[in-house]
Design a protein that fits this description.
This protein is α+β, with helices and mostly antiparallel strands. It is built from 9 helices and 10 strands. The protein has 2 domains: 181 residues, Gcn5-related N-acetyltransferase (GNAT) (Aminopeptidase, 3-Layer(aba) Sandwich); 42 residues, no CATH class. The protein is globular and about 55 Å long. InterPro entries: Mom.
Length: 228
């Protein structure tokens, strides 16, 4: 398998067919993994913000001169060999380090979609537990889902009464809890040092059987999304 940089349009087209959310999200850097001429998997990365004064991850990244990059999306053809997703993530991690330098890669698995982060576990990410959204939300504005951050940036508020007077149609979509994984994409000594600092926050990987979480049924999720 080989990896190449691809553009957003190609990544988006692939996700529409093979990933249940059907888009690149906030992805900025997109990588395609090929077997021969067949695009088997796509991984997209973007920028993630962790305030060094308010976040342990942000503080660690600052002290070790690490960027913080989010793995936003990953999708694989349904007929690809079973180990393709973990191979694709491994190649993408190596390539993003080559292109962008040392970093902490942050990835989330959404409980709303029965995700537990199986691929991140197979890729030796550290597991930090589950987020607490604390009333955070995305917004569906005139049929398009927009993050709460972008809503505040554009309108200066997230007050629904004000927003309803500004747009034709808006709906608040509460965020669901997400599993948090990180990967220290740097040399062995930095990986070891960061893992030691995060030791008290790291937890055992979640398992479907222990959480009574069913399969994602990826194919059906994508098919259902295309009907909407």
């Amino acid at each position: 398998m080989r990896i190449e940089i691809i553009d957003k349009n190609e990544a988006s087209s692939f996700f529409q067919r093979f990933e249940h959310l059907g888009n690149c999200g906030l992805g900025v850097w997109h990588y395609g993994c090929y077997e021969g001429v067949t695009l088997q998997s796509v991984i997209s990365f973007g920028i993630s913000n962790f305030n060094p004064q308010r976040s342990k991850i942000g503080n660690i990244a600052q002290r070790y001169n690490l960027k913080i990059i989010q793995l936003n999306r990953g999708g694989t053809r349904f007929d690809a060999p079973i180990n393709t997703p973990s191979k694709a993530v491994s190649l993408a991690l190596k390539q993003i380090r080559q292109d962008k330098g040392n970093s902490i890669i942050v990835a989330y698995s959404d409980t709303k979609w029965n995700e537990i982060g199986t691929i991140y576990q197979a890729s030796n990410f550290l597991y930090l537990g589950v987020t607490n959204p604390k009333g955070q939300a995305n917004y569906r504005v005139n049929g398009r889902v927009v993050s709460g951050w972008n809503i505040r940036k554009k309108f200066g508020t997230r007050n629904m009464s004000i927003l309803e007077s500004e747009v034709d149609s808006i709906e608040k979509i509460p965020l669901s809890p997400k599993h948090i994984y990180i990967y220290v994409n740097a040399n062995k000594s930095i990986r070891k040092a960061v893992a030691k600092e995060l030791n008290s926050k790291c937890k055992s990987y979640p398992k479907r059987i222990e959480l009574s979480v069913g399969s994602m049924h990826e194919i059906w999720l994508v098919r259902d999304a295309t009907k909407c």
